[in-house]
Amino acid sequence: MPICEALMAMLTIALSKGRIFDETLPLLAAAGIAPAEDPETSRKLIIGSNRADVRFIVVRASDVPTYVQRGAADLGVAGKDVLLEHGGEGLYQPVDLGIGRCRMVVAAKAGFDYEGALKRGARLSVATKYVMTAREHFAAKGMHVDLIRLYGSMELAPLVGLADAIVDLVSSGNTLKANDLVAMEDIMAISARLIVNPASLKLKRDSLQPLLDNIARNAPSAPGTADAPSAASARSRA
Questions:
Q1: Which residues have C-beta within 8 Å of that of residue 51, sequence separation ≥ 6?
Q2: Quick one: pLDDT band at residue 234, thresholds 50, 70, 90?
Q3: Going along the chain, which residue ranges are E strands?
Q4: Which of 131, 128, 133 shows the shortest CA–CA distance to 84?
Q5: Each residue of 95-122: pLDDT tens digit?
Q6: Cα dihedral angle (133, 135, 139, 144), rounded to 10 degrees?
Q7: What's the Cα-to-Cα distance from 173 to each of 53, 164, 180, rounded to whole Å?
Q8: I want to staple 146 with a disulfide (CB 3.0 to 4.6 A). Which of 125, 162, 177, 224 is the partner?
Q9: Architecture in CATH for domain 3-100+191-237
Q10: Over the stretch 82-93, which tens digit does the pLDDT of each residue have?
Q11: What's the rounded Cα separation, in Å, for the pair 162 and 30?
Q12: Is 127 exposed, middle or buried, given 0-12, 13-18 or 19+ CB atoms closer than 10 A?
């Protein structure tokens, strides 16, 4: 098969290392797909699979939507938090997989009078990497906040006086508790979603749609098949 035809037939799946990758593997295994190497130990960024027509690219979680949107990957798995910050343009999102579950919360030091600050209309400083989501949340509440973009160790910000509060993801809550922080308010529930490039779905439908349906059937929160977008809806996302 010529190289160009081989690339056209290849399905590329974008995933990030960590919890979402681990929880996606059983869904792919049910579809008969397994990575040829362990991404946690391999230094390769492109990893083959047990199928000649499927490969994985390993990227940062925040970059998964961009690779799929731009067509460098045909499909991927990304958290709702990442998709909200990305904006979701040019992506078809057929199913919430129900994996990678956690909560996005506003948290502050134990004893901080968050409700009192809200009532007084106090201007708060809030550290987060979810700037767009935080801005929309506080604006909807009529709150004035100074947002400070951070990329890690979010819990440190209130402890050293950098911020009054943080917006971050919480699973067990153990990290908050260990740092004497308390969740003051839930913003939303977060889980991972299957995302697809609309052009790939059109050009590779015969191989891609059965895979989407298989993943959807085995997803914890999404029994059934993945809904295929109409031509009009696919164009609107392109």
A1: 32, 33
A2: very low
A3: 11-15, 46-48, 54-58, 75-79, 92-96, 102-109, 124-128, 145-149, 165-170, 181-190, 192-196
A4: 133
A5: 999 999 999 999 999 999 999 998 888 8
A6: 150
A7: 41, 19, 11
A8: 125
A9: 3-Layer(aba) Sandwich (3.40)
A10: 999 999 888 999
A11: 46
A12: buried
Domain ranges across the chain:
3-100+191-237, 102-188
Mean pLDDT of 146-152: 95
**Which one-letter amino acid corresponds to residue 206?**
D
Question: CB of 79 within 8 A of CB of 188?
Answer: no
In this predicted structure, the answer to whether residue 30 has a pLDDT above a threshold of 50 is yes
Domain 102-188 falls in which CATH fold? D-Maltodextrin-Binding Protein; domain 2 (3.40.190)
Name the pTM for this structure.
Answer: 0.85
pLDDT at 88: 85
Q: Which amino acid is at 27?
A: L
